[in-house]
């Protein structure tokens, strides 16, 4: 399913069963597909607020798909009954625009349910993993939205740039980062956090993320549907060059999320040596402008496709986009074995990936 090399990515020996929350979302589905293809002997338990797909697997010894509300204690605890879960990918959440628009829901899903999940995994570890065994590995999917005091022209150095969120989504993610870190610091779980860049090109319906328009300006026109560009008034608007955005191909993000679980715990502090005890990773990405996105659409869909883009500023989206940094220093994470797309060809490759996905359906 990918052009990345996975030969060196080995699950820790004690990880025989993996739980994936948010498995009905795009990132969750792609991660589950990758796990199924790479590790035929590993049992997967997938869950979401809606029934996650089983990807053609009917044997529950291989893949158990569960519809569950993680805010409900009984449903949450039911995921662990009769299991010995050695790895967790906590991917579920309400996206940036949605959590900003619905304050209570954002905190319920992005904060409360993650705290409940951490407690449940900790209790499970105590009951199923003797003190002589390694702790379950817990990977929390956070966001670069935790950075505030930045603009699309900013370049974030993770060693020196403070984390000061400027959105409810960023606040919620950072609070959970701190708690995830504390569970690792205490030795309760082997925790690590990955901050995701904007993932392109996402298929399916538009999400509530403020960044959804980035995929939408490719996805909808290639499906002969109109798409909204909410940060400009026309193709001649200078804003198309000013809103620098940090993105990554979906295949690359999925590969890096998996590598986060496989990277040895004892090497984190040695590799990072700063920031939450070396347990937080800004997944690598590359910079793209809205104009470059439109140019990629023209290259892969023709001039007629670009005519399907409607330009209408949305101040709510602009307010969130104004708090995003346009670039991040990848260097320390690349030394750890995380990978990055080529800045010149990465977005075009992401569009090709999307077209291949469309053709296979």
Description:
It comes from Kwoniella heveanensis BCC8398. This is NAD-dependent epimerase/dehydratase. The protein has 361 residues and is of the alpha/beta class. It has 2 domains: 17-197 and 249-284 and 332-336, Rossmann fold (3-Layer(aba) Sandwich); 211-244 and 287-328 and 343-356, UDP-galactose 4-epimerase, domain 1 (Alpha-Beta Complex). It has 15 helices and 14 strands. The chain has helices spanning 26-38, 73-78, 96-101, 103-128, 168-185, 212-222, 239-242, 250-262, 268-271, 275-278, 290-301, 303-306, 315-321, 331-335, 346-360; strands spanning 17-21, 43-48, 63-67, 87-90, 137-143, 155-156, 190-196, 198-200, 227-229, 245-249, 280-282, 286-288, 309-311, 327-328. α1 (26-38) packs across α8 (250-262) and α4 packs parallel to α5 (168-185). The radius of gyration is 20 Å and the shape is globular. The model has no long low-confidence stretch (mean pLDDT 92).
Given helix and strand content, the structural type is: alpha/beta
The main pleated sheet reads as: 7 strands, parallel
CATH topology of the largest domain: Rossmann fold
Tally of alpha and pi helices: 15
Percent helix range: 40-55%
- What's the helix-strand series? EHEEHEHHEEHEEHEHEHHHEEHHEHEHH
Looking across the biggest beta sheet, what order are the strands in?
3-2-1-4-5-7-11
The CATH class designation of the largest domain is Alpha Beta
Overall pLDDT: 92
Beta-strand proportion: 15-25%
Number of domains: 2
What is the CA-atom radius of gyration, in angstroms?
Answer: 20 Å
What would the principal axes of the Cα set say about the shape? globular
Q: Based on the structure given, which CATH architecture of the largest domain is correct?
A: 3-Layer(aba) Sandwich
N→C terminal distance: 14 Å
- Which residues sit in consecutive blocks of at least 5 with pLDDT less than 50? none
Organism: Kwoniella heveanensis BCC8398
InterPro entries: Epimerase_deHydtase, NAD(P)-bd_dom_sf
Keywords: Carbohydrate metabolism, NADP
Pfam families: Epimerase
């Amino acid at each position: 399913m990918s052009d990345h090399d996975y030969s060196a990515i080995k699950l820790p020996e004690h990880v025989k069963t993996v739980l994936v929350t948010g498995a009905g979302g795009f990132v969750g589905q792609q991660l589950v597909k990758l796990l199924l293809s790479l590790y035929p002997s590993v049992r997967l338990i997938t869950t979401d607020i809606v029934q996650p797909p089983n990807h053609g697997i009917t044997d529950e010894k291989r893949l158990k798909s569960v519809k569950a509300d993680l805010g409900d204690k009984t449903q949450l605890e039911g995921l662990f009954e009769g299991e010995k879960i050695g790895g967790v990918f906590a991917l579920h959440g309400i996206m940036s625009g949605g959590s900003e628009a619905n304050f209570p829901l954002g905190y319920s899903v992005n904060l409360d349910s993650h705290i409940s999940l951490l407690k449940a995994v900790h209790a499970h570890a105590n009951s199923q993993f003797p003190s002589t065994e390694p702790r379950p590995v817990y990977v929390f999917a956070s966001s670069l939205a935790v950075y505030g005091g930045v603009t699309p022209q900013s370049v974030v150095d993770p060693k020196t740039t403070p984390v000061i969120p400027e959105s409810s989504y960023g606040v919620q993610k950072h609070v959970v980062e701190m708690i995830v870190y504390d569970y690792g610091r205490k030795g309760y779980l082997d925790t690590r956090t990955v901050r995701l860049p904007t993932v392109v090109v996402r298929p399916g319906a538009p999400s509530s993320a403020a960044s959804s328009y980035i995929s939408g300006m490719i996805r909808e026109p290639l499906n002969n549907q109109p798409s909204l560009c909410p940060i400009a008034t026309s193709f001649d608007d200078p804003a198309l060059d000013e809103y620098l955005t940090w993105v990554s191909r979906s295949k690359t993000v999925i590969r890096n999320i998996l590598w986060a679980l496989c990277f040895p715990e004892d090497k984190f502090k040695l590799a990072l040596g700063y920031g939450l005890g070396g347990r937080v990773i800004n997944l690598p990405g590359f910079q793209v402008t809205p104009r470059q996105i439109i140019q990629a659409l023209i290259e892969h869909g023709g001039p007629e496709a670009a005519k399907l883009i409607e330009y209408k500023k949305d101040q709510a989206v602009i307010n969130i986009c104004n708090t995003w940094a346009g670039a991040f220093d990848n260097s320390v994470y690349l030394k750890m074995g995380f990978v990055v797309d080529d800045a010149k060809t990465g977005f075009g490759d992401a569009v090709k990936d999307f077209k291949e996905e469309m053709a296979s359906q």
